[in-house]
Specification:
Strand content: 15-25%
Strand order of the largest sheet: 3-2-1-6-7
Number of strands: 7
Helix content: 25-40%
Oligomer: single chain
Distance between the termini: 79 Å
Order of helices and strands: EHEHEHEHEEEHH
Structural class: alpha/beta
Number of helices: 6
Radius of gyration: 26 Å
Largest sheet: 5 strands, mixed
Length: 206
């Protein structure tokens, strides 16, 4: 059992999946795998996938599915529950941690053609970037037919940026380098003289 508190201090991307998904979920996994590879899969980066069909997606089923898609490793969390309402409230409820759109189940009687092509659900395809403090930093539809490349580039940029925020606080190396440059310029202008109580030049004190 896990909770969001277990992700404290970690940067993660949360998304929806379900193992019987015919198409979309595999695309999301592939995109997020690419993000992990591009960032070097650092220890403080996680990918957290919540099942929208927890009554069918048992832990064993999810583990097998993760292995099939080569993401059965500690960086990836595939989460389910024996209380489906809990996942729904976590993802889309009024007190949702991620504020994704409500999952819609297609009607088998009138939308069988859609179900055959896209699966039984219409669900939010976006990934949610969350920083180490638990704050949402952005939403990214990596499968958008028109903006997919743009979203992918934005997510990679933002993941790297948020990961960088995890560096020790305080004056950065750029600040130190700037200080050194100022000192070097000062010494060059003053000839490297030590402070000796010099007064401003004047006719009486040249």
């Amino acid at each position: 059992k896990v909770s969001l508190a277990d992700l404290a201090g970690k940067v993660y991307v949360a998304c929806y999946v379900y193992t019987s998904c015919p198409r979309q979920c595999m695309g999301v996994l592939a995109e997020l795998k690419a993000i992990g590879t591009a960032t070097g899969n650092p220890d403080n980066l996680r990918f957290v996938a919540f099942s929208i069909e927890p009554e069918k997606d048992t832990p064993e089923q999810l583990k097998n599915w993760a292995g099939l898609h080569e993401v059965d490793n500690p960086a990836w969390w595939f989460l389910t529950s024996d209380k489906p309402k809990e996942i729904e409230e976590l993802m889309t409820g009024p007190k949702s941690a991620f504020k994704l759109m409500q999952v819609v189940r297609y009607d088998p009687a009138t939308q069988a053609d859609i179900i055959a092509k896209e699966g039984p659900y219409a669900h939010d395809p976006r990934g949610v970037l969350v920083d180490g403090a638990g704050h949402i930093r952005g939403y990214y539809d990596l499968l958008d037919p028109d903006k997919g490349d743009f979203m992918r580039a934005n997510l990679l940029r933002d993941v790297k940026s948020v990961l960088g925020e995890g560096q020790p606080k305080g004056r950065s190396l750029w600040w130190v380098a700037g200080l050194v440059a100022v000192v070097v310029v000062f010494l060059a202008l003053t000839g490297g003289r030590k402070g000796d109580g010099l007064q401003p030049a004047s006719p009486e004190n040249p």
